[in-house]
Amino acid sequence: MEGYIYILLAGKEFLNTRELLFGSYIMKMGLGNLFLTLLFTSLLAIISVWYLTKNLRELVHATRRFQQGDLEYRIKDAERSDLASVTTTFNEMADTILEDMNKLQSIESLRRELIANISHDLRTPLAVIQGYIETLQMKGNKLTKEQRDNYLNTIENGSKRLAKLITQLFEYSKLEANQIEPKREPFLISELANDIYSNNLILAKNKNIHLDLNMDENLPLVFADISLVERAIQNLMDNALKFTPSKGIVTISVLKKDENVEINIKDSGYGIKTENQTLIFERYRQTKSGKKNEGAGLGLAIVRKIVELHNSSIRVHSIPNDGATFTFTLPIHGLNRTIQIT
Ligand SMILES: Nc1ncnc2c1ncn2[C@@H]1O[C@H](COP(=O)(O)OP(=O)(O)OP(=O)(O)O)[C@@H](O)[C@H]1O
Ligand SMILES: [Mg+2]
């Protein structure tokens, strides 16, 4: 006998126990890992969804604030957001809505103001007309021909004033509400100036005012709305003739200035105090100095609107008791320039 060989045979019980132990260990490990993976991916998913929907939530929040009436609310840094095209569009849309609402509100308040002013302004001449008509009816044949003519004259003047007022109010309200789009076309300003000069000659003569027309030679065509320009010049002429006493001079001058034609209406009348020179262009503004005035204070407001529609501005130069000069320019036709439409 030189030695022994031991062969250890695992018993069935041992094998079963070992398998059980090993199996449960693997299972535990697997379950743990699975749980950790699930936890991690869920967290990752939550963070990603939170991050990805951040801008969307801001958009929803902004929409809700806007709907609740906070019209000034805007998405911050809209251009840097992941949904930049949507967020910037939202901000732009909000701006447009607010702008339109403000416009509508100002038109509405203007409309109310105009209705209030119209009813007030129309009442006075209407009361005068009614009063004289009633007197004519009551006194009838007892009136002399001269008295009758006098009353009828007053009624005629009153109705003319009324018609003028209605036209002016209508025109001004349309200009103010931007309902008038100038129909620009090339025309000869020299011809228009000549027409206005001839139309005003008789009135000037009746008032004993010398009317002058002074034009540069070969004036170019201007590019503007002829009827609006005529209206503006006529309003300035009405004022010049109204606020210039007998023996005065009113001059229409049309001069070429660089790329424009300059139109001046100069008078030798009562003039306008410096502090009133900007105010007179506002509607219903009339100065107390000078002569008694039956106008409504709309003429210059209309002129300003018309001139502004032509991308120009109206200026006045005046020394009290030494006359006034109103100046505006119109663009020459054919010169290459951009016209800004506001
Ligand atoms: N050429 C002028 N000389 C002196 N004052 C002027 C002259 N033009 C205008 N004004 C002053 O500016 C005011 C406003 O002028 P505007 O033409 O708007 O109104 P109005 O002439 O009084 O009335 P309307 O033109 O509506 O008939 C006038 O009432 C007047 O006080
Ligand atoms: Mg006037």
TrEMBL record:
Q: Which domain of life is it from?
A: Bacteria
Q: Where in this chain does the record put each Histidine kinase domain?
A: 117-334
Q: What is the lineage of its organism?
A: Bacteria, Pseudomonadati, Bacteroidota, Flavobacteriia, Flavobacteriales
Matches recorded under InterPro entries: HAMP_dom, HATPase_C_sf, HATPase_dom, His_kinase_dom, HisK_dim/P_dom, HisK_dim/P_sf, HssS/ArlS-like, Sig_transdc_His_kin-like_C
Q: Identify which top EC class this enzyme belongs to.
A: transferase
Is Transferase found in the keyword set?
yes
| Catalyzed reaction equations | ATP + protein L-histidine = ADP + protein N-phospho-L-histidine
Give the membrane topology, semicolon-separated if more than one. Answer: Multi-pass membrane protein
Q: Where are the transmembrane segments?
A: 31-52
Question: Boundaries of each HAMP domain copy?
Answer: 50-102
The alphabetized UniProt keywords are:
ATP-binding, Cell membrane, Kinase, Membrane, Nucleotide-binding, Phosphoprotein, Transferase, Transmembrane, Transmembrane helix, Two-component regulatory system
**Mind telling me what this protein is named?**
histidine kinase
